[in-house]
Every structure is written in structure tokens, then in C-alpha cells.
Amino acid sequence: YETNIPVDGAWGYLLDRMQGFAEAFHPTGEYGYQKIFRILHYNLLFFVAYFLTNPHEILHVLGAGTRKLVMTHRLELCLWVFGIGSLLSVHLIHIQSPTHEWYFASRHSMPVIFLFWLMTIFLLQRNKLWRSVAALCLALTICIGVMDINKIHRNMRRRSHTWPGMNFRVLHTWMNNKAQLEGRFTAVTNLKLAKFLAPFTNNIGYRTIIAYDDVDVVKIMFDQLDSDYLILDTSPVEGKRDEYKALRQVMHSTQIPGFTHQTTIGPYYIYKRAQ
What are the residues facing 205 on neighbouring strands? Predict the structure, then answer.
């Protein structure tokens, strides 16, 4: 359902995408690079600043000759082309979506790491000022990354005392028994539950619901994509994102239009498409 945000002509397109750069490098932006790269991406700004203050570097590169440059730095040029292409491909996408507009903070921007690393290495080879700036960005990125890993580790240790719960174990046992009796089937559920179930189940595929999928969208998953079971997790929402936002009105109900209730296992309501 995602389409590019409409703009008024070529000038409007350029202005819109330029605004995307401000969002990408905003230190606290909802869609900014900082959610993935922490501080490292700021070396791109310092890289640009370096050439603006040292224009003779550009003249030196241009004066070296294209053929000589390509023959002596082929690998580096390939990495630069790949990195710049990755950056442009992410910045050219501005979509209409209720959950996100830009892809800077998503997995789609991961290839841009090649460009950020190349610019970091370039600055580390310059004079003391630029070397210090690049090293600071790199050091802060590593420190924040280590803290993030420690935080994830602590959260996993806290959860290990209570997870998986009895209802979850009963659910994946029920699903495995169904797969043995009926053969391979596909379940529709939210992304979090699908990720938890996948390692514990065999011969079962998953399709996931996002926050704005309503009953009509779920019906399409069954009628056109041959899904078999709908599993709704009615547990309290953790965090800001409610993956059942558009389905919340039918939660805790055995009467969903177009579906037949099969069973309830703790907070998990299981349905099949009505014939």
C-alpha cells in the first residue's frame, strides 16, 4: 500500500528529497541514521566540510587523469560507487505510510555503511583536526554500540527467567500437532509472535500483520495467499507500537466476521477462514 509522496514537478521533488537529508542527520529524528549508525554517519558531513575547505584536493584528483585514477584505484572506486549508490537509493524514497516515511532508520540503509567507513578512513588519513574529528565519531559509535549490546544482554537475561511461558509452550505444541495431522500450513499473526514461534515449530509458515492491517486485509491473506490459521495475541501491548491496532476492536472475541473460532490458549485466540 506504500506509494511515493506526491510532489509538484522536478523542483518540488528536489526540495522534498533535500528535506530528507535534514531528517536523516537530525540527532534525535524519528527516521534518522542515528538509530542505526549512532554517530558514524556524521563523518559524511565532515567529509563534505573537508573538501569545501580544501578545494585544491578536488583539483588534484581531477588533474591526475581519469584513466590513471581508475587503473590505480579500481577496488576503492568500486566501493565508492557502491556506497554513493546506496546513499542515493535510500534518499530517493519518500513514501506515504502511517508508520514511516523515510528508510534511514531501517535495514534498507545498511549498505550505506560502506560509504560512511570510506569517509571515516579518508578523514583518519588527513591532518590532526580532521583525524581527531573522525576518530571521535568512530569511538563514540563503538562505545554506544557496546552499551546497546550490554542492554540487550541484560534484557535477555531478565526474560530468560519467565520465558517461554506455559501458554506459549502449549501454543507451539498445539501447532506442531496440527502440522503432523494436516501437513504443512501457514499461520497469520503479528511479527513478534511469529519470530518467537518459528524456532519451536516445524513445517509451518508465517505471514505477519502490521499495525494498520484490518480485517479486510487479513481476509486477503487467506483468500489470495492461501493462509490457514489466524492467531491473535491478546496480551497487553509492550512499548509504543501496537501491531494489532486496526484489529483491536475484535480482540477477545470468538465472533470475527469471515472467520471461525477454533480454540483459545491463554491469550492466544486461533481462527480459520469461514467456508
Answer: 186
CB atoms under 10 Å from CB of 73, counted, come to 13
d(CA 70, CA 67): 5
The answer to whether 93 and 20 have CB atoms below 8 angstroms apart is no
SS3 223: helix
Chain centre to alpha carbon of residue 62: 38
For residues 204 and 186, the answer to whether their CB atoms sit within 8 Å is yes
Give me the sheet containing 185-190, strands edge to edge. 204-209, 185-190, 229-233, 268-273, 259-265
* pLDDT per position as a tens digit, 162-196: 555 788 889 999 999 999 999 999 999 988 889 88
**Residue length of the chain:** 275
pTM over 0.85: no
Measured CA to CA, the distance from residue 11 to residue 102 in angstroms comes to 19
Q: Where are the alpha helices (DSSP H) in the chain?
A: 9-24, 34-37, 42-53, 55-63, 66-72, 74-91, 113-124, 128-160, 166-182, 191-197, 215-223
Q: What is the dihedral of CA 231, 236, 241, 245, to 10 degrees?
A: 60
Q: Within 13 Å of residue 273, how many CA atoms lie on the same side as its CB?
A: 18
Residue 35 near residue 105 (C-beta atoms within 8 A): yes
